[in-house]
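Ticket closed. Logging final result for Cysteine desulfurase-like protein.
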Amino acid sequence: MTLDLDFVRAQFPALAGEWAFMDNAGGSQVLRRVAERVSDYLLTTNVQTGASYEPSRISTARVAQSREAFARFMNCDAGEIVMGASTTVLLRFLSEAMTSRLGPGDEIVLTNVDHEANIGPWLKHAARGVTIRWWRCDPETFELDLADLEGLMNERTRLVCVTHASNILGTINPIRAIADIVHAAGAELCVDAVAYAPHRAIDVRALDADYYVFSVYKVFGPHHAVMFGKRDKLLELDNIYHYFFDKSRVPHKLEPGNVNYECAYGSIGAVDYVEELGTRSGAAPGRAALEAGFGLVAEQERALTAQLVDFLASRNSVRVIGRASTDIAERVSTVSFTVGDTSSRAVVEAVDRAKVGIRFGDFYAKRVVEEHGLSKTDGVVRVSMVHYNTPAEVDRLIAALEPAL
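Final structure:
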């Protein structure tokens, strides 16, 4: 089976316009069904949850349906889903909720390839005597070596934080292998999956991460985010809500101020959409359809990535940052590069004129850009495609890039 692009593109109203959107790692386009759900919530059930009257009961059920949808999306239980405004916010909440469990002499391992969302919140614990240890990538290949991680682990390690896929490199990291190393040392694993979630099916049971978080606005939905946490781990976390919320009130003790109800309800549309891609290919509804839908997504994106990477490889002036492989297991369809000493800003601004939306900079993965001398070219040029992009749009991008390379 191949992806029905006519069906796919008809689900996203913005794609009917003049622009080709290839800045999707910053935020994807939104499904019509998502916007309709948000509108329906606001216009028919915009009341506080938890009351006895009927509109409130409906509102409560709709928010619960969102947890159930993302439990299906990630293969976990609905009670293990924490919701919030963004991955950055949820990781800050998680860090705060781990305060009583981290103290002088404890150690946290961070990488220098992560988005700052999975770095900054953990650095704050250094002021309380927690030691921060860095798992740094190879300066030439930008790869994280598992042997280096093993060398960092010891009996004082409490937490390892890593990205599933780099939002600059596109590299897919071997999360299950990392989890095995982390758990063998008695530590916990926190995974930022923002740059992975739009591209591949997620199975947190198979990955064995303790915490796993991503933003729904990168996965065809509204500005909303979800975090999986193993039930026993969530129960151990501090309450960061009102004093009368005890530690057993999971997930609500980790959602201060309540969640955005309309975004939670609207986000169900993104899960339903991927599932529909799978059922249209013949898969049974549920997890099987989600996996089949993402299988179609992955193959479509592999072809687009190969089209772009093959072109970039033909230009001596271009350096692809990260893996050149376009294998589905190796990378997602986010491709970054530099052009000699040319400003990445100049390259992107040339492409703007062709109504193709790409981007330059460090994308809040500032440490890897600065540590490896990429700031001198205004960061990297990043092309971040998703399954609704087309070969014709990649051709448009290439035609716009050629004069600048």
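The two ends are 36 Å apart (CA to CA). No further action required.
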